[in-house]
Backbone:
C-alpha cells in the first residue's frame, strides 16, 4: 500500500486539527475504517456524491449516518425498493382543497444529506430521478424548478450485484458518483471492540456536529485552490491514456472521470494538510474514483474493477 | 471579384523582406529604375493581399516583361553578362511576384529569391557580405516555410524560428559539400567588373602631375609567410615595370613583356634556376581587374593560372576580378637576367630624342667621374643625398623638361619623382634601367602573424642592370627619406600630416589609438582567416587537405567520400530527429532521480512498479537507516520541485549531493 501520510510539508490555513478531530469522532462509531472515513470526507469536500457498496450488515448505513451527524447535516433516508416511484423521492404536486390549487409537496430529496439506501433495488426509473437531481442539484416538476439545498450530498448504498432482485446501475449513472467505497469486514481487533463496546446506536446518537457550515464551505473552497503542478497533470494524463489505450481496458476513464480523479486528489491533499497535490494523493484516491468507471477487456460480469485500478497504478510510471 | 490564390501572410511578409534585403547589395550596381520597378511590384503585391487591387492581367504582364527586357538591353547593351543578368533576374523575381496564381508559382518566386542571393556572390565575397547573404537566405527560407504553413498561422516569429532550425540543420551538410565537392575551374569565364573603378597602382606614372597614386587605406593584399616575416626594407612587392618614357609619362611601352612566349611557364632559360633557400608565402590579393600579381623578386609560383612575364613578374592568365590567392616561392638572392639580351637592353635604354638637357649633362658628368655603372649608381645616389631634396605628397606641379625642373629647381616629390629622375639619369648615361611599381613594406598583424599591404603602401623604385649582377634594385627614395622604407609612409609624412588626409574615417589613420588599432587588426584577422580558409579553398588546397586525411584522392574517391558523408550526415540527422521526438521532456530533477534509480536497481532498491518517487525514497529509509535523513530530504526536494510549484535552480545539485551516499 502506498502511503503518502508522512509528507506533510505545508499546512493549510484551516483550524489545525479540525480534520483529525472529525475523523476521530467518526471513528468512535465506525470502528477500524479510518481510510474509508477519510475517503468519504474527501469525497464530500470535493463536492462529490458517494456510493458505498457492500454486503448487508457491513455498516454502510452507519457510516452514512456518522458522516451526517459529524458534519451536522440535515439528514434524510430513503429506502429504495422495487416499487419506489420518482415522486416518492422528489415530491409531487398535491391539490390543496383549502386554497383551491395545486401546490408542490417537497419530497425527501430536499435535504442536505440524502442516504439512498440500497439504490440498486429500485427500478431504473426511480434511480434516474435521483441521479438527475444529483447532477443538476435541482428538481423540475411540472415546469417549475426547485433548487436543492446547498450543500447537497447523496450517499447511496448498494448491494453487490450477485444479490437477488437488483437493478444494476448503468455506467452512465455510476459516473455521477465521485467515489465508490467498499467497507469490507472489520479487522478482528476492531470487531472485538465492536462486540464489547455496547450499543453502537447510542454512540451514534451521542455524536455531535464537529464543524460549522461556514467551515465546510471554507474547506470546499480551499480544495479548489490546491496547487496542481504540470508534473502531476502529466501523471494523470498518463494514467488516463493508459486506461484508454492499453489493451487492458474495455472502457477507459472519461474526461469526467479524470476530472473526478483530480478533484478527489486535491481534497485528499487538503486532508493530508498539504496545499499541493502529489502523486501519492492520486494513488490513494484512484481505486475509489476509478474502479466503478473502468471495465476490463474480459470483464463482462459488471464493473468490479478493483484489480483494474491496481493494474492501472502499476502500469504507469509516476515520473517519466 | 476573385483575387485568386493568396500567398499566406507570413510567407508574403518574409518574401517581401527577403526581396528587398536580397536586392540591397545590388542597389549601387543596378540602375535606379530597376529599384523603382521592384518597389512598385512589392507595393502592388501588398495591395493585392489587402484585396484592394487585382493581380495584373495578361496584357500588362506581357508589357512589363518585354519593356523590362528592352530596358535592360538599352541600359547594358546586352542581356548576357553578370550585371545585365542580375538586373534581369531581379526584374523577373519582381514580375513573378505579380504572377502568383497558384502555390506552384509561389514556389518559383522563392527559388528565384535564392538565385538573387546567389548572384550577389559574383560581385562580393568577403565575410561581411557572406554573413549578410546568409541572413537573406534565412529570410527566403522563412518565406518558404510560411508557404507551407496554414494561412491561420500568422506569427512571423514562429515561422522565422522554424526557418532558423531548418538552416541550422542544413549547416553540417553545407560543410560536407564545401569540403568534398570537387573544385573544378570555372567552365565559363565571366567578364566581371569592367565598370568598376580600379584602385591600386596604375600602369602609367607622370611625375609632376598631382599626387595621383591613390592614397587610400584600402587593402591591397595579405601575405602569410611560411616562416617569419622578413624585415621591412626587403619587402619590395614588384607589380609592374615601366620601361617607356615619352617626356612626361612613364608607361609600359610598346613591347608587351607579359605576352607569350614568356608567359608560358618554364619557357626559355632566362628564368634561371632558383638559387639559395626560397622564401615561401601565400598572397591573398584583393580584386584589381588587372592581370599582374605582386611578389618579391625572383618569384616562382605553382598556382594554376599563374605565369611569368619577361621582366620576372608573376602574371595571371585572366584579370583578377575576385579575391585570388597564390603561392609564391621567392629566391631573394637569385640575379635577374645575368645576361641581358640586346633587344631588352634597347627597351630599357629608351629615352625621348630631346629634352631635359641639364639632366643629360649631369648624367654624362657623373658617368665620367664614376667610370663604371655600379660606381655611377653610387655617385648618383650621393648626388641626391648632397642636395636639399625632400619627400612630400604635395609636390609642386611640373611641366616641360620635368626632370630638369625636379632635379635642379623644386627638389620636392615622392617616390615616382625620384624613381623617374633616377632611371632617366641612368639611361642618359647608357645604363639599362627601369621603374618598378608595386608596394613597399606592409603592416604586420600580430594576430595570425601575417602581413597587410594597403594601397597607401604603393611605391615606385628603380632597377638598374649591372653586368654580372643582373637587375639590381635601387630605391632613390631611401636616400631622401630613409624612414619611408624603414618605418612606412606614415612616418615619412609625419611632419607634413598628409597621410590619409583625404579619408578622415579610415581606421588606419588612427593607429596611435591602441584600441582602434587592435579592433582593426582583429577584424582584418577574421577577414584573413575567411580569405585563407574559405575563399582560398581551391582545388590545390582541397586535394592537399583531403590527402592528409584519406590518402590520395581522385575524382571517384572524392565522389564516394561525398556520398558516404552526406548519407551518414542525413542518417544521423534523421536519427536525432527521431530520437528527439520520442524523448519525453524531462525535468532535470526527474532525470537525476532516474539516474539514482538505475544505480539502486541492481541492489533491489529500485522503485516498485507505479511507485511514486517520494514514497520510494521514504520506503528506502527502512533499508538504509544510515541515510534516513538524506532520503527524507531528497523526497521533500522532489515533492517541492515537481509538485509544489517551487523552482529552485540549485535543487538538482542538492539532490545529487544528497544521493551520493546511497
Residues:
Amino acid at each position: 500500500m502506498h502511503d503518502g501520510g508522512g509528507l506533510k510539508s505545508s499546512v493549510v490555513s484551516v483550524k489545525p486539527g479540525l480534520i483529525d478531530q472529525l475523523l476521530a469522532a467518526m471513528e468512535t462509531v465506525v470502528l477500524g475504517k479510518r481510510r474509508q472515513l477519510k475517503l468519504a470526507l474527501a469525497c464530500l469536500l470535493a463536492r462529490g456524491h458517494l456510493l458505498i457498496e457492500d454486503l448487508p450488515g457491513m455498516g454502510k448505513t452507519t457510516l452514512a449516518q456518522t458522516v451526517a451527524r459529524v458534519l451536522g447535516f440535515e439528514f434524510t433516508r430513503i429506502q429504495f425498493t422495487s416499487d419506489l416511484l420518482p415522486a416518492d423521492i422528489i415530491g409531487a404536486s398535491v391539490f390543496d382543497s383549502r386554497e383551491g390549487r395545486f401546490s408542490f409537496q417537497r419530497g425527501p430529496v430536499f435535504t442536505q444529506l440524502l442516504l439512498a439506501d440500497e439504490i440498486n433495488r429500485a427500478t431504473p426509473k426511480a434511480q434516474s430521478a435521483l441521479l438527475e437531481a444529483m447532477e443538476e442539484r435541482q428538481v423540475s416538476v411540472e415546469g417549475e424548478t426547485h433548487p436543492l439545498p446547498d450543500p447537497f450530498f447523496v450517499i447511496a448504498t448498494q448491494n453487490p450485484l450477485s444479490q437477488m432482485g437488483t437493478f444494476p446501475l448503468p455506467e452512465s449513472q455510476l459516473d455521477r458518483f465521485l467515489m465508490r467505497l467498499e467497507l469490507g469486514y472489520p479487522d478482528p481487533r476492531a470487531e472485538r471492540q465492536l462486540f464489547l463496546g455496547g450499543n453502537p446506536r447510542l454512540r451514534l446518537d451521542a455524536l455531535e456536529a464537529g464543524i460549522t457550515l461556514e467551515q465546510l464551505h471554507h474547506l470546499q473552497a480551499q480544495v479548489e485552490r490546491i496547487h496542481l503542478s504540470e508534473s502531476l497533470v502529466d501523471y494523470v494524463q498518463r494514467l488516463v491514456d493508459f486506461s484508454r489505450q492499453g489493451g487492458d481496458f474495455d472502457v477507459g476513464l472519461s474526461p469526467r472521470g479524470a476530472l473526478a480523479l483530480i478533484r478527489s486528489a486535491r481534497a485528499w491533499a487538503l486532508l493530508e494538510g498539504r496545499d499541493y497535490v502529489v502523486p501519492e494523493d492520486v494513488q490513494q484516491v484512484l481505486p475509489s474514483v476509478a474502479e466503478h468507471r473502468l471495465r476490463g477487456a474480459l470483464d463482462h460480469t459488471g464493473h468490479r474493477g478493483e484489480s483494474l485500478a491496481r493494474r492501472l497504478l502499476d502500469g504507469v510510471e509516476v515520473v517519466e | 471579384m476573385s483575387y485568386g490564390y493568396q500567398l499566406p501572410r507570413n510567407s508574403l511578409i518574409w518574401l517581401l523582406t527577403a526581396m528587398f534585403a536580397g536586392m540591397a547589395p545590388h542597389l549601387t550596381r543596378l540602375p535606379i529604375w530597376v529599384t523603382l520597378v521592384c518597389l512598385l511590384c512589392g507595393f502592388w503585391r501588398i495591395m493585392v493581399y489587402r484585396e484592394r487591387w487585382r493581380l495584373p492581367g495578361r496584357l500588362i504582364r506581357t508589357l512589363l516583361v518585354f519593356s523590362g527586357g528592352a530596358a535592360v538591353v538599352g541600359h547594358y547593351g546586352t542581356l548576357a553578362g553578370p550585371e545585365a543578368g542580375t538586373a534581369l533576374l531581379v526584374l523577373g523575381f519582381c514580375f513573378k511576384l505579380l504572377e502568383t496564381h497558384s502555390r506552384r508559382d509561389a514556389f518559383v518566386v522563392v527559388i528565384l529569391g535564392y538565385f538573387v542571393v546567389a548572384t550577389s556572390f559574383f560581385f562580393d565575397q568577403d565575410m561581411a557580405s557572406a554573413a549578410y547573404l546568409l541572413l537573406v537566405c534565412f529570410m527566403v527560407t522563412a518565406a518558404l516555410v510560411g508557404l507551407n504553413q496554414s494561412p491561420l498561422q500568422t506569427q512571423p516569429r514562429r515561422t522565422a524560428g522554424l526557418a532558423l532550425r531548418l538552416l541550422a540543420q542544413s549547416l553540417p551538410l553545407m560543410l560536407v559539400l564545401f569540403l568534398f565537392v570537387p573544385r573544378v575551374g570555372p567552365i565559363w569565364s565571366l567578364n566581371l567588373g569592367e565598370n568598376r573603378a580600379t584602385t591600386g597602382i596604375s600602369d602609367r606614372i607622370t611625375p609632376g602631375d598631382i599626387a595621383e597614386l591613390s592614397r587610400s587605406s584600402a587593402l591591397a593584399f595579405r601575405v602569410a609567410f611560411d616562416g617569419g616575416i622578413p624585415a621591412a626594407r626587403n619587402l619590395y612587392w614588384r607589380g609592374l615595370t615601366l620601361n617607356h618614357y615619352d617626356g612626361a609619362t612613364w608607361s609600359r611601352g610598346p613591347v608587351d613583356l607579359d605576352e607569350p612566349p614568356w608567359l608560358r611557364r618554364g619557357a626559355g632559360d632566362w628564368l634561371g634556376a632558383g638559387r639559395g633557400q626560397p622564401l615561401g608565402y601565400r598572397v591573398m590579393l584583393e580584386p584589381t581587374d588587372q592581370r599582374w600579381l605582386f611578389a618579391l623578386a625572383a618569384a616562382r609560383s605553382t598556382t594554376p593560372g599563374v605565369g611569368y612575364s619577361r621582366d620576372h613578374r608573376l602574371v595571371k592568365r585572366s584579370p583578377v576580378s575576385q579575391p585570388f590567392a597564390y603561392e609564391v616561392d621567392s629566391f631573394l638572392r637569385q640575379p635577374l637576367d645575368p645576361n641581358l639580351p640586346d633587344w631588352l637592353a634597347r627597351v630599357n635604354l629608351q629615352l625621348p630624342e630631346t629634352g631635359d638637357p641639364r639632366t643629360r649633362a649631369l648624367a654624362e658628368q657623373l658617368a665620367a667621374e664614376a667610370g663604371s655603372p655600379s660606381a655611377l649608381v653610387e655617385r648618383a645616389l650621393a648626388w641626391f643625398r648632397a642636395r636639399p631634396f625632400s619627400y612630400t605628397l604635395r609636390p609642386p606641379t611640373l611641366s616641360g623638361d620635368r626632370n630638369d625642373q625636379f632635379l635642379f629647381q623644386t627638389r620636392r616629390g615622392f617616390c615616382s619623382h625620384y624613381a623617374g629622375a633616377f632611371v632617366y639619369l641612368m639611361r642618359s648615361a647608357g645604363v639599362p634601367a627601369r621603374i618598378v611599381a608595386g608596394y613597399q613594406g606592409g603592416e604586420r598583424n600580430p594576430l595570425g602573424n601575417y602581413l597587410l599591404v594597403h594601397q597607401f603602401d604603393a611605391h615606385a623604385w628603380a632597377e638598374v642592370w649591372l653586368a654580372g649582377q643582373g637587375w639590381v634594385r635601387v630605391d632613390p627614395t631611401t636616400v631622401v627619406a630613409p624612414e619611408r622604407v624603414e618605418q612606412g609612409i606614415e612616418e615619412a609624412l609625419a611632419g607634413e600630416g598628409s597621410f590619409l588626409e583625404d579619408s578622415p574615417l579610415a581606421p588606419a589613420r588612427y593607429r596611435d589609438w591602441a584600441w582602434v588599432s587592435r579592433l582593426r587588426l582583429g577584424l582584418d584577422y577574421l577577414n584573413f582567416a575567411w580569405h585563407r580558409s574559405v575563399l582560398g579553398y581551391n582545388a590545390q588546397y582541397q586535394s592537399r587537405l583531403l590527402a592528409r586525411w584519406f590518402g590520395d584522392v581522385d575524382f571517384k574517391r572524392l565522389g564516394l567520400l561525398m556520398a558516404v558523408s552526406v548519407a551518414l550526415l542525413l542518417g544521423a540527422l534523421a536519427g536525432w530527429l527521431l530520437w528527439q521526438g520520442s524523448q519525453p521532456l524531462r525535468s532535470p530533477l526527474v532525470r537525476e532521480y532516474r539516474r539514482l534509480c538505475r544505480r539502486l536497481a541492481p541492489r533491489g532498491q529500485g522503485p516498485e512498479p507505479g511507485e511514486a518517487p517520494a514514497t520510494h525514497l521514504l520506503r528506502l529509509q527502512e533499508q538504509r537507516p544510515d541515510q534516513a535523513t538524506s532520503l527524507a530530504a531528497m523526497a521533500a526536494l522532489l515533492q517541492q520541485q515537481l509538485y509544489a510549484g517551487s523552482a529552485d535552480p540549485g535543487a538538482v545539485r542538492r539532490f545529487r549531493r544528497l544521493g551520493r551516499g546511497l
